[in-house]
């Protein structure tokens, strides 16, 4: 049995380290497969290599179900294709849809008997699969909602940073007046791709609303911690 961890980001400038850290914390021996691809492209070469490589009893770890596919429909198809192949799937943020959970629920399913009652049994077995499908869809949609909520909070945070970094009584040529050091450092950690974000230094300076010299001073201090 081989254990793989799959991490994916939608833009190359985003940090993938958080996903990798979450996976390796619980599965330190996992072989990490990672890649970046855009949401408008279905080309995921590393994923396709992994998909074709995995065998029965192998395991793939995802930070979230949304990392497995671009849409709920695609995710559901992939889930059952791999399950039927005997591959175990683990979702760190949605353990209730792990294939082990589904397998446990199906373990006591009603077996076909070769009689007229089989049609009833088929209906019950189909019910279990539909129930799992619904849970997977809900998990995927919830993960997508969290992404949208995060983007909204980020936009609101940018606006707040812009307002808080507003120059007060500043004359042309004077340096920007920074109200508070701690909030600025928090925003640097949040937005800079050198920490938890995905923005360049120039983008961060504009978003946070501080001078270039102040920005690099705070950034050096953060890196020294």
Shape: elongated
Oligomer: single chain
How many discrete structural domains?
Answer: 2
Widest β-sheet, arrangement of strands: 2-1-3-4
What is the overall number of helices? 8
Radius of gyration from CA coordinates: 24 Å
Question: Strand fraction band?
Answer: 5-15%
Mean pLDDT score? 78
CATH architecture of the largest domain: 3-Layer(aba) Sandwich
- CATH topology of the largest domain: the name is Rossmann fold
CATH class of the largest domain: Alpha Beta
Helix share bin: 40-55%
What is the CATH superfamily classification of the largest domain?
Answer: Resolvase, N-terminal catalytic domain
Please give the number of β-strands: 4
Distance between the termini: 41 Å
Uncertain segments = 166-179
Could you describe the 3D structure shown?
By secondary structure, the chain is an alpha/beta fold. It folds into two domains: 3-144, Resolvase, N-terminal catalytic domain (Rossmann fold, 3-Layer(aba) Sandwich); 166-223, no CATH class. It has eight helices and four strands; from the N terminus they run E-H-E-H-E-H-E-H-H-H-H-H. Strands 2-1-3-4 form a four-stranded parallel sheet, with helices on both faces. Strand 1, helix 1 and strand 2 (31-36) form a beta-alpha-beta unit. Helix 3 packs across helix 5 and helix 6 crosses helix 8 (212-223). The protein is elongated and about 65 Å long. It starts with a strand and ends with a helix.
């Amino acid at each position: 049995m081989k254990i793989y961890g799959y991490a994916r980001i939608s833009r190359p400038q985003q940090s993938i380290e958080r996903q990798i850290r979450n996976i390796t914390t619980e599965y330190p021996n996992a072989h990490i497969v990672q890649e970046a691809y855009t949401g408008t492209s279905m080309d995921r070469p590393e994923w396709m290599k992994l998909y074709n490589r995995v065998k029965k009893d192998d395991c793939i770890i995802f930070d979230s179900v949304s990392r497995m596919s671009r849409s709920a429909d695609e995710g559901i198809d992939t889930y059952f294709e791999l399950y039927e192949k005997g591959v175990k799937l683990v979702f760190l943020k949605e353990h209730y849809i792990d294939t082990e959970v589904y397998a446990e629920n199906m373990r006591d399913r009603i077996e076909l008997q070769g009689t007229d009652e089989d049609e009833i049994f088929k209906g019950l077995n189909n019910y279990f699969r539909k129930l799992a499908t619904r849970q997977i869809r809900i998990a995927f949609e919830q993960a997508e909602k969290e992404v949208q909520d995060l983007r909204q909070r980020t936009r609101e945070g940018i606006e707040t940073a812009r307002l808080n970094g507003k120059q007060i009584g500043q004359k042309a040529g004077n340096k920007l007046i920074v109200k508070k050091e701690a909030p600025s450092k928090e925003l640097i950690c949040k937005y800079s791709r050198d920490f938890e974000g995905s923005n360049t230094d120039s983008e961060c300076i504009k978003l946070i609303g501080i001078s270039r010299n102040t920005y690099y001073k705070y950034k050096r201090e953060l890196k020294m911690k």
